[in-house]
Protein: Iron complex outermembrane receptor protein
Organism: Microbulbifer hydrolyticus
Amino acid sequence: MSQTKRYFLHPLAAAITFSCGISATAADIETTRALEEVTVTAQKREQSLQDVPVAVTALTGDELDNMGIQALDQVARQSPNVTLEASRATNSTLTAYIRGIGQQDPLWGFEPGVGVYIDDVYFARPQAALLDVFDVERIEVLRGPQGTLYGKNTIGGAIKYVTRSIAGDASSKINLAVGSHNQRDIKASGSIPLVEDKLWVGAAFASLSRDGYGEYVGPQFEGEENGNKDVFAYRLSMEAQPTDALNLVLNYDNTSDDSNLRGGYRMTPGFVDGAAPLNNVHDTRSGMDPTNQQVNSEGLALTVSYDVNESIQFKSITASREGDQQTAIDFDSEQLGLVEAPFFVTSDEQFSQEFQLIFTGEKLSGVAGLYYFDGDAFGAFDLDVYKSLYNDGTNPLIGTRTIGDVNTVSKALFANGTYQFNDAWSMTLGGRYSKDEKTTNGFFSSYNVLAGAGDFNNQITATDFKDSVTFSDFSPRASVEYFASEDVMLFASFSKGFKSGGFDPRANITALPQSAEPFDSEVVETVELGVKSELADGRLRLNATLFNNDYTDMHVKTSVGIDIDGDGNSDSFAGQVINAGSASGLGGELEAIALLTDNLSANLTVGIINAEFDEVMLLNRATEQVENAADLMVVSYTPESTVNFGLTYDTSAFGGELMLNANASYRGEVHMYEIETLLDQEGYTLFDINAVWVSPAQNWTLGLHGKNLTDEEYRTSGYPFTGIDDGTTPAQPNLANSLIGYYGAPRTVTASLSYQF
């Protein structure tokens, strides 16, 4: 592991000049090494990171291994103004926010505001999108609207998960890891040429398991693991190059997650018995069977590339994905089972076809294409509220069933190109026209369920609805780039993104008739000013961006408690999505890396954002008037500041090379919902230390990784069903006075050993 290679593997931008007081002169930095060029595909063609007028963080697979990053959520620490977390009550569903824009409700049929891509194939739903890191070439995080090249649902940004190419000589690698909470991971990959320089096949798999961070407490499931991991994933690949001009890549991936249900930590006393909260925030009193969970995801993709000539390449990407999920949520986390929601089978199916024409000339370079997507999301869940424990017992059990299906057909035409006027000036222009058709079929019913019986009786309400709606949008992008020198680029850009409107699959048109109405698309327009530079003979790299988001027609999701049987208590809740208003986000980002000496480097990322609602028009139930409630609303999952600072030291040791890395990541206060709740997490800092030794022949690697070394307790999500009602913002359901939190990983230590041959 040469030092030059390692710095190529850590392409965070550079300006330790400010943080460490280091002068950016060759005399002060006594080293002969320089940072290597970083190649990204943020504009769907290979370019140097320093030439792309987009805010991008790129981390390669080797760097992810060196830093002990095991899952996609940990990448957020390396990228400013980015939040990636496991969604509430789940292990593998992703909650993603970039610059204050994302999707905090992971319900099927809802679309994220941050697009996730596996080898340029769009991952349409957040379910199973919290990807484990194995056999990865690199991960790119693109910040800001990417609507021109990546289409709808990338209004916050995009995350690109790029797998390794198998072309080349035969190779294989195996990695074993053991650690805290009985962690036992095996990762292996390999490829072999079947026909020299013409045909290759490869495979990779990962078996990931550990015990829970906590356990189930109580007589029903005493000792069962809570927050454990049991994942098996594999990928099969084939690459063919029949001629010098033609290349075909076929990939199949499959992931199966058999982890237990993730029970929540009840922060309020027991509703019936008044039991105090448990001592360990990773423990739960949930009364639901923890083994009642299964998440599956698989995909098949064929990429065909044909070089028409030296300047033009044609590319076709054909892909299909499908997945299903069976799980449950215990909204009160009590043994008595007051408020339980078993999910039946949630399934997603999607097919996509993209054609690209990539052109590279002396003056004009870019990409144009066509895109088609057909996706279907189906889900169903029950919600049972045990009424006899807090009323007169006349209705022993109130149950509701919600079933919803949302189909999406998208079509788009796009183009994006850069024209180089001269050595100093260039301009990038692009646009995308998109058309989406959404069709929904929903059903909601409520009934009394006899205690101890499995049959539904005495149906109270039953409603269904069918509808369809079409949305269209044009998303432009314009950028002007000025190369002040060979190593310094300044850019100013305007970009637009949109997230398609649709239907709420939880609509209860009996309680809220308006909930069946489609909601419109939301739109973000962003202006950016940026600089990308390499200083001190290439030993300092500085990338910085200032941005302003203008966010209109925002989707605000509300959950309103409803009283089915008229006794004054919430039996269930009804969801509704409304285009409630507008918001803005003004901020800045700094990414930096510096080679301080031949052996020591420092990296720094800083993100600052002032994200706030400007207008949210809601009904004030006290005055019966629609009023602006913006002052009462907050932007979720968006800390005002994020900071990451790390030092890395390389030295020779035991005949090989030793890398030591210390890293501190700070995140400011985080709101979990669009109103302030007791779940909100105050600012915190996580400390990590990594040590990696590489043998003289560079085939053996030994790693030791410590995460969250101070054992910080921090919430990442939760449910605030405590009946909050200020008369202006939507009233919150009161379901057994439940305040349920889900927490990030405690302190862990992992040792890994890998062999490459």
Notes: Confidence is low (pLDDT under 50) at residues 1-31, 387-395.
